[in-house]
Write a structure and sequence with these properties.
Blueprint lengths: L3 E4 L9 H13 L6 E4 L15 H17 L3 E3 L10 H6 L2 E3 L3 E6 L2 E6 L9 H10 L2 H9 L2 H19 L4 H4 L3 H10 L4 E4 L6 E7 L2 E7 L6 E8 L2 E8 L5
Helix pairs in contact: 1-2
Length: 246
């Protein structure tokens, strides 16, 4: 059966081993016969550089490589807002191909736009301002030159600040801006958009250029696991308990 799978927002960390176990089981039992696997960002809770080697990072790379080689399945990765510093070194270690933040793909004859989704949330002006700063190539180069221990402290301080601010953000701020969705879909001339970031697994019906379209929000892996499955017969969103495969 021809299948393409999309996942996002696993936020893997040593503190949430059940999510890592769910992910590895997903690779072994669900994705085993997939033609292609797309990971749409935030696979890790935090990323401070390819030169860090934690047991979890190495285990994830090993599992992805084994999965890709055993099943001859290509893995494509779009950076998230947590792990935008993943570089070519780790991508190679994990057998992943890095993609631009907005990528068009041919999904069984249907031109589709895929992305992480943080660029859609324009109401969150503070984040969008910060995003411009942290995505500056020069600042990223300087950050990578800092000692690993210092980068760890900075990375976790940013993560802690981000988590605390979430409490005060309303749903509209955390959600996507419809005008930006329509603008990007019109720009790329697509009727389908697949993304993550908002952690709200849902299929949204919309109209783009006077034609029916759909926006697939992949969802996160906190209490449930979720993924989008595409085949020649259609696209569906699947949500299951986090321990479904175990």
């Amino acid at each position: 059966m021809m299948r393409t799978l999309f996942i996002a927002d696993l936020h893997l960390s040593e503190n949430h081993r059940h999510i890592s176990d769910a992910f590895f089981s997903f690779l072994e039992k669900e994705a085993v016969n997939a033609e292609t696997l797309y990971i749409l960002g935030d696979m890790f809770e935090v990323w401070i550089g390819d030169d860090e080697h934690t047991p979890l990072m190495d285990e994830v790379a090993q599992k992805l490589t084994q999965f890709s080689q055993k099943n001859n399945t290509p893995i494509f990765y779009i950076h998230g807002n947590r792990d935008f510093m993943i570089g070519k070194r780790y991508a190679k270690q994990a057998s992943m191909t890095l993609l631009p933040e907005h990528t068009e793909i041919d999904l069984y004859g249907c031109k589709t736009l895929i992305m992480h989704g943080d660029t859609l949330c324009l109401f969150d002006k503070n984040y969008q301002r910060m995003r411009k700063v942290i995505h500056n190539p020069m600042l990223q180069f300087i950050f990578n030159c800092l000692p690993l221990r210092l980068r760890k402290r900075i990375g976790w301080k940013i993560r802690t600040a981000s988590q605390s601010k979430k409490v005060y953000k309303n749903t509209n701020m955390m959600g996507v801006t419809q005008d930006e969705v329509l603008r990007l879909m019109s720009k790329h001339n697509v009727q389908h958009l697949i993304h993550g970031h908002t952690h709200q697994a849902f299929i949204h019906d919309l109209e783009v250029n006077n034609k029916a379209g759909k926006r697939y929000d992949v969802g996160d892996w906190y209490n449930n696991l979720s993924y989008v499955e595409a085949s020649p017969t259609g696209v569906e969103l699947v949500v299951r308990p986090i321990n479904y495969y175990q």
